[in-house]
Structures are given as structure tokens and as C-alpha cells.
Amino acid sequence: MIGIRFSEFTGKNKTVFEKLFDIFKELILHTSGDVDEALDWLNEIDKEYGITTAEYTMDDFIEELKKKGYLREEIDTPNGDGTGDGSGLSITAKTERAIRSSALEQIFGKIKKSNSGNHTTKFTGQGDEQTSDMRSYHFGDSLDQIAMNESIRNAFVNQGIDDFSMTHDDLVVQENYHKAQMSTVLMIDISHSMILYGEDRITPAKKVALALAELIKTRYPKDTLDIIVFGNDSWQIELEELPYLKVGPYHTNTVAGLELAMDLLRKKKNANKQIFMITDGKPSCLHEPDGTYYKNSFGLDEYIVNKCLNKAAACRRLKIPITTFMIAQDPYLQSFIQKFTEANKSKAFFTGLKGLGDFIFHDYENNRRRNIK
């Protein structure tokens, strides 16, 4: 059906709703936010794995999604003859947050905390030097930050000694100082080649972007992340748009993506800046000064390649490293990425799709430590 095995989402110790919801969040990414299509696929998966029961049907699941605020009814604008196009379902901001949290847990959940840096700043959050300040526990805080004595004291005050239990609301953590601030631009290739030959490259890229965004929001809230996409042109998208992102009938204008990334980073006040680029590696388009497009889908065009190498060198002069995550295996494309990386004096990971999130996490952590000023 979609080439994905979902048996891992039907684990034990989960309610039927939780099992279905885990799969539903995955399908929403694959369908770019199309709820009806996601539910159709979920029905097929349910037929194969028997997730629902006589007591809890798919209709019950949909109603619970609505009741918990994960789905809302959308009424289409009436037609000119007074009739409407019907109604449909769409996901809510609560679902978007749940998808980001799920992506964070799947991709980064098993990776250990990295080593500490050496330079402090005035900013507070989840850092490395402890202070005497306390705050409520937030998702993403490490367990070793929890101030146990104060948390137990809160539980006694809130529940009393006769009915003692500790809840999430009782937990407090010791505030830390951040050691650096990093500004990152994540470039995502949305050219048509990202779905060619039956390989879905865009969904893993979206999931990694969601996980990276959630990681930064929860662990490094003073860091910044801007997300841009590039096809024939390049434009910035908001975090909330990521689940709905689709590949278009585009060529790959890597130069336009780099130009926009450089413009965004020039506006950042901090000194630590970087670009992450997820691509299948083949630039095939330029937007010329006269407004026309120069395109060549056959092989590597020397004119386009040289423009890309010039932009990589320009980023190097601005002290902006570009880490390229190459998700195609073609040797001649990897050769181009190697030249591109040499021009920027940075690095590239020829990851394929497997392990893409691990590579990005480790490089983000390493760059934060290495780029502290």
C-alpha cells in the first residue's frame, strides 16, 4: 500500500485509541495533512492487524479524536447555486504539536545527552551550569534536572500525607544557564525527484524537520530555526506548515535556497550560524537576472554546478558552515556533493533515508559545541 510496516505501532500496554493515534500521526505526514486519505489507509491497516474491537470501532476513534481536540469539522464554502461542497475533517494545532512530539521521541528519544561546552551566556533554560532558580518541569527536560526534594515537597502540599502521590504538576527542575546560542536554517529539497522511482524521500525529511524543531523548542529555546524549501524557487515556511508539505513538479534550484538561507542568517545577531540541507543532491535550475529560468535535468550542468560552488564559498567567507545530508546513492551526485562540501570547508553525510535523524541530531549537538564564541 505505502511501503511502510506499522507493526511497531501496535505494541502492548496501549489502549486501542493510543495504537490508532500513533499510526494516524504517521499517516498524516505521508498524506501531507489529508485526513480522509489517512483514515482510509488506517482502515486498511486495521483490517490487516485487527486493532479495533467490537467495543471500540473506527467510528469511536474518529469521535474521540474530535472530542479530544485533534480533529475539527471543516465546512466548504457554498457554491454559486446555494449548495455546498460538503464537509470534511482537518487536523488541529493540537495534532500538529502531537506530531512534533512523536517525531522527537522516535528520532531523538534514544540518543544520550551530549557533553557540556565551556562558555556560559546570560540566557537561562536547559543548559549546563546550575543556578538556584526553580521552574516547572517541561517535556524535553532531562530527568537529572529534576529537583527531587522540592518536587516531593510539592506533592505533600498538593495531595497531603494520607493520599500521597506524585504527578507531573508537582515536578520542578533546577534552572540552568545556556552555553551558546545557535541560529540554524534547515533547507528541504521539494523537487520532483524527491519522490521518483517509488522512493518517498520527502516524508522522512519532514519528520526530521519536525523533530529538530521540537528539540530546539524544548532543549535549546534560545536557539533559532528557520525552515525553507527549494524547488524552482525558494521560500520560507512556518513550522505549522511542515505536516502539509508536498513535493511539487519542480526542478532543484539549490542556489536560490542558499541565497535565502544567507539572507535569513544575516539578520541574526548571534555569531553562531549554520545551514542544514536535506537533498537528493542534483541542482538542475537557476533563476536568471532577466526573470527566466535556466533548467537542465540531464546530468550535472557545469553552469549550474559552478553557481552552487560559488554560493558554498560565499557561505564559507561568512563563516556559515553548510552540512549536507545526501539522501540519494548515485555516485556522480555524491561526487558533486563532495565538491560542494570542499568549497564550503564543511561536511556531508551520505545517509540514504535510514539514520537521517541520528546524523542531524549529532551534527547539531557537535556544531553547538564547536561554534561557541
TrEMBL record:
Domain VWFA per the UniProt entry, residue ranges: 184-282
Matches recorded under Pfam families: VWA_2
Signal peptide: none
InterPro entries referenced in this protein's UniProt entry, alphabetically: VWF_A, vWFA_dom_sf
Protein name stated in the entry: VWFA domain-containing protein
Originating organism: Owenweeksia hongkongensis (strain DSM 17368 / CIP 108786 / JCM 12287 / NRRL B-23963 / UST20020801)
